[in-house]
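Let's sit down with a protein and look at its sequence and fold side by side. Once you have written the record down, we can walk along the chain together.
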Amino acid sequence: HFRLAATKFSDPSKAYEIIEEARGRALADTLRGESENLSTSSDEISIDAQKEINRIQIALMHETTRETRQSLLDRLFVQEQLLLPVRQSRSRLRSDGDRPKPSPLRKVQASLRTDEMLLEYVLGESEAYCLQITRAGAAVLIIPSGKKQVEDLVDDYLSAVRSRQPEDTAGHKLFSLLLQPAIGLKSPMRIIIVPDGKLHLVPFDGIKNQEGKYVLETHVVTYVPSATVLHLLRQSRAPRSVNQTVLGVGDVIYPQPPKVVSTTTISTNARANSVPDFFDVEAVRFPDLPGSRQEVMSIAGIIGGTQLLLGANATEAALKSLPLADFRVIHFAVHGVANTQFPDRAALVLSRSPESEDGLLQVREIRDLPLNADLVTLSACDSGNGRLLGEEGIASLERAFLLAGAKSVIASLWTADDTYTIVLMKRLYLHLVDGSDNAAALRQAKLDLLREFGDQAFPVFWAGFTLVGDGSTMIFN
């Protein structure tokens, strides 16, 4: 149907309705007030299952033998099946009807600024499409390459970036196919991407144009699960009091299992292409992140009035006890765990207190946090990575924070380098305090890195940090 509307009938409005019916529905439903969550069920079976999951995951933190870990993982899977979804209605938005439909195209257009362009991609088998939406109009662009060809280019590009090899060949092809027809010579400066398939894993601002310049140098790039989600996020902006605060979490104390031959260590510096899986028979050791204290303290020095959870205080229980809805900005400088096979296991790794919490702030728990933040920053590895869920998007920590109520989330698509990340985050908050909106501040921080480190600022050090959600908010204006 989309192909017919896009090609035979040349009807952008109909094409928009068809694709938006499927895109980002879970998040759109949550913003409208209807959602399903796994961790808030109050029945006895679910409560007992969550307690047992905590006990099992605490054991996994310390266990190093393959056989025992496999037994624990088997038990974990059984307990996870006992968690029952619960329908909730908790949004500040009114539903547009009993059967929510995509936001009308005209309303999406009206919510865009004059310097913004939304590009919504659809990867078909034989050809791909780009739905180009501005405040003034909409059009469907046909991309003469199918899903496999585009995603093969994505794989080549990401492989080159992560290994610090020249990414020009695949990058130029991606630019020519995906961006050049849409942005042309005189496009709006701000580009909002609605990805499809493996395009969720691509940092578009890290692609070079035909002149060899990064897209970052000419455009502000952000991402949303759907055009409807962007419209709803912008509708939901609530009035703010002047004493809104900032929360910083870092310098977590991580448990250290006995060193054995099979233990894998997650490095704190320039890391490999993928993070070892905590939920595997091979034990994983989380080293302390001494740079995270410096990162969080630097941010506190820039902003002032920041509430901090550091060291032994950076526990899961302490975080959950705070009035989280009061924080306008929340910053995590911690280890992250992604899991493509079981997305709800993905977690931010915090300190563990003697209480029942296991220190893993997992997706199924994050979704239930009462957030109202304009920005959540996840200065953690693979926090923007996860399992591709078709038209629903990508199941990541980033998405979980949006479901919890955050308006925008900055996260990393891959393992981050500690040294460059500290500099990037400091510059991000300096630009926010100077009055830049979230997206412009992130772009400017990346440009600062390029200027400061020159040829040594490989895209792997900065391009992985992306902003999903509404990046147009000026927090400190």
User: Anything to note?
Assistant: The two ends are 45 Å apart (CA to CA). The first helix runs from residue 2 to 8.
